[in-house]
Amino acid sequence: MIETVLFDLDDTLLDFHRAEKRAITRTMRECGLEPDEERVALYSRINREQWKLLERGLITRDEVLTRRFSLLLEALGAEGDPRAMRAIYERNLSEGHFFMPGALETLDRLSLKYPLYLVSNGTARVQDGRLRSAGILPYFREVFISERMGYVKPQKEYFDCCFAVIGEDRRPGAVIVGDSLTSDIRGGINAGIHTVWYNPEGKPADPDTPAEVTVRALSELEEALERL
Ligand SMILES: [Mg+2]
């Protein structure tokens, strides 16, 4: 029986894709680079690759945050200061938010039944701003931002730090709900907790990272948790 729910933030409750697109478009403009679909997609791809390297422990968070801009500038053959660009981007990203469909209704309903926690690999200052802007902090007993913990999802140590706060006795009845197989579902498996993969785009499953349950919409989540 599920007694505790750990929610991922980006692309699970908040639409990171949309927020990223807006933030990088503004950042390019502020840095004198004309933004277009292709350039935005290029940034997005570079950024994703860097986060995957962090999940695998191959580079540090600080390297991710700056390197994505040095790689972007290099790919565009443009002059610029990656550190300055990073600061502008982080400011833009921390302002505003977009919800995933059904996110607020889901938090409303589930928070009446379970203690909720937030588990995010994002940057602390950026996530603080987005959470404040979205007004969803009151739903959560605790917010675990990896930058403040010294570990990232999917590391087992990340979840050990979470359960040191939540209570070890709650681990058997805990579930992680997230959109990423590599950080959320792999992390849940490493932590020995239940896993729900939120897969709105119907991406193919990965037999090496099997989620216990897959939902296509957040509106399916309440029922799915009852079945676990
Ligand atoms: Mg996510």
Features:
binds magnesium ion, DNA polymerase, domain 1, Rossmann fold, alpha/beta, 228 residues, 6 strands, six-stranded parallel beta sheet
Task: Explain how this protein is built.
- The protein folds into two domains: 4-15 and 97-227, 3-Layer(aba) Sandwich (Rossmann fold), CATH 3.40.50; 16-94, DNA polymerase, domain 1 (Orthogonal Bundle), CATH 1.10.150.
- The protein is 52% helix and 12% strand.
- It has helices at residues 16-30, 37-55, 61-76, 82-94, 103-113, 124-134, 146-149, 156-166, 181-191, 221-227, and strands at residues 4-7, 116-120, 140-145, 174-178, 194-198, 213-215.
- α8 crosses α9.
- It is globular, with a radius of gyration of 18 Å.
- The model has no long low-confidence stretch (mean pLDDT 96).
- Residues 8, 10-12, 178-180 line the site of magnesium ion (MG).
- Magnesium ion binds next to loops.
Present the secondary structure layout:
Blueprint: E1 4-7, H1 16-30, H2 37-55, H3 61-76, H4 82-94, H5 103-113, E2 116-120, H6 124-134, E3 140-145, H7 146-149, H8 156-166, E4 174-178, H9 181-191, E5 194-198, E6 213-215, H10 221-227
Parallel strand pairs: 1-2, 1-4, 2-3, 4-5, 5-6
Helix pairs in contact: 1-2, 1-4, 2-3, 3-4, 4-6, 8-9
The structure holds magnesium ion (MG).
Magnesium ion is lined by residues 8, 10-12, 178-180.
Number of strands: 6
Helix content: 40-55%
- The CATH architecture classification of the largest domain is 3-Layer(aba) Sandwich
How is the quaternary structure best described? single chain
User: Helix count?
Assistant: 10
What's the story with the biggest beta sheet?
6 strands, parallel
Overall morphology: globular
- Side by side, the strands of the main sheet go 3-2-1-4-5-6
Query: What's the CATH class label of the largest domain?
Result: Alpha Beta
Q: What is the CATH superfamily of the largest domain?
A: HAD superfamily/HAD-like
Portion of residues in beta strands equals 5-15%
- Tell me the CATH topology of the largest domain: Rossmann fold
Mean pLDDT, all residues: 96
The topology string of helices and strands comes to EHHHHHEHEHHEHEEH
Low-pLDDT runs: none
- Report the bound ligands by name, code or SMILES: magnesium ion
Question: What structural class do the secondary elements suggest?
Answer: alpha/beta
